[in-house]
Amino acid sequence: MKFTKKIFLLIMFLFLGLVSSKETYSKEKKSKPNYNYVVEKASIYSDMNKKENIGTLIKGTRVNVYETKEVTKKIKNKQGKEIDATIIMKKITYKDVDKTKVAWIEDTYLVSTLNEAVDERFKNLDFTEKEKKEYKDNKRVKVRGIYVSAHSVALKGRLDELIELAKKNNINAFVIDVKGDYGELTFPMSESINKYTKSANKNPIIKEIEPVIKKLKDNGIYTIARIVSFKDTIYAKENPDKIIVYKDGGKAFTNSDGLVWVSAYDKNLWEYNVTVAKEAAKAGFNEIQFDYVRFPASNGGKLDKVLNYRNPDNMTKAETIQKYLNYAKKELSPYNVYISADIYGQVGSSSDDMSLGQFWEAVSSEVDYVSPMMYPSHYGKGVYGLEIPDANPYKTIYHSTKDSINRNNNISSPAIIRPWIQAFTATWVKGHIHYGAKEVKEQIKAMKDLGVDEYILWSATNKYENFF
């Protein structure tokens, strides 16, 4: 009797264990997403028989496939004869901002990886999941920031005024120039910099950075070091063999501002920028923000055939920018600082890199924060169906933010979206409106309506008093 009972208990134990194992496997199988990616703009339907078209998905959209059905339909062949044709339909879910939606799509529009879905020049980009850290002694904050030039920091009393302004208006972060628009270094740095430049550090605007950082932190201000990456007049003058030139004649290429650009392929400049970033980290900055992390505007890439970018490794623009940010991230990891990148506002709404090297998913996957410059004045006539985007701050920011969020939905380790918004009046835009507190609030509301609660105000003059 005892022996039989033991056998019975053993059998029950094994049975329950098997059931439990099957249930665990079933749950794991059910919870593991089966991602596919849309290879071109495709229609989606409410049912597998395609009776109701409920919209379209753009190229590169990530979907989760959880049901496959074969549908037989009568179609006419070239001879006009009616024949049976089998179409494979897939039931999917996809994310639209933060909502999960259900639809059916033809199997022919889906591929198994994002690399297969993107255009040829983006197939070498790395879309794999990346580790995004939080540092124990440098906690993440939800940034509500303003740009502060090195001159404002150095000007007696102005920094104190901006701190008081921040306290009264719920601002908790300052973006401060560390390597400026011409390549100037704004505070004294160690001799390690001399390996890369002879003159950039000769006359820094901020004479001592440590007291500045201390004052800001004592007042609850999160500090972000702005480093202009590839627009660098000083470095260009010292390294003329590194600048972008015309193939025919070797004349330096310039944009409308007349400034030359150093090639983003120059790995010595990569090292220089990251060395500056390390100096900023050692000085106490919480975050490194890379600006002008791109190639210069080249008329949508039309000038590429006549320009010499000095590209020894034959890399695409987008691949180069991603590798630069990846290199910076790895080098700066021991310093416990976060990494952010400024990109064009329309990159999130573009199917390519706008010939700048800024492909949304490639940038977002590398950095902790991505800051699209969503100034309404910078969007052309008719963008998002708006006659004058500058005169529609809410709608412009809403559309741009929505597209950016949906691009983030395509990858597993996206950056936090923290847009730059407009705190200036764009008098050069035909049909522009005056920007003040109302227009800033509209931009912030557009983001918040979509769940984005971080932002930075840009004013080149740092005159923010009328925007709160």
CATH superfamily of the largest domain: Glycosidases
DSSP summary, beta strand count: 18
Q: Can you tell me the CATH class of the largest domain?
A: Alpha Beta
Multimerization status: single chain
Radius of gyration: 27 Å
Strand neighbour order, sheet with most strands: 16-15-14-12-10-9-8-18-17
At CATH level 3, the topology of the largest domain is TIM Barrel
Inertia-based shape: globular
On the 0 to 100 scale, the average pLDDT is: 93
Please state roughly what percent of the residues sit in beta strands, choosing from under 5%, 5-15%, 15-25%, 25-35%, 35-45% or over 45%: 15-25%
Q: What's the N-to-C terminus distance?
A: 85 Å
Identify low-pLDDT runs: 18-29
Helix share, percent: 25-40%
CATH architecture annotation of the largest domain? Alpha-Beta Barrel
Number of helices: 11
How many discrete structural domains? 2
Output the structural class.
Answer: alpha/beta
Descriptive overview:
With 468 residues, the chain is an alpha/beta fold. The protein has two domains: 35-117, SH3 type barrels; 144-467, Glycosidases (TIM Barrel). It is 28% helix and 22% strand. The chain is built from eleven helices and 18 strands. The protein has helices at 2-31, 114-117, 150-154, 158-168, 210-218, 233-238, 267-283, 317-332, 360-364, 393-408, 437-448, and strands spanning 35-38, 42-45, 53-57, 62-76, 82-96, 99-106, 110-111, 144-148, 173-179, 222-228, 245-246, 287-291, 307-308, 338-344, 369-373, 416-417, 420-422, 455-458. The strands form four sheets. Strands 16-15-14-12-10-9-8-18-17 form a nine-stranded parallel beta sheet. Helix 7 (267-283) packs parallel to helix 8 and helix 10 (393-408) runs parallel beside helix 11 (437-448). Mean pLDDT is 93; it is low at 18-29. This is DUF4015 domain-containing protein. Pfam families: DUF4015. Residues 145-464 form the DUF4015 domain. It comes from Fusobacterium pseudoperiodonticum. InterPro entries: DUF4015 (IPR025275), GH (IPR017853).
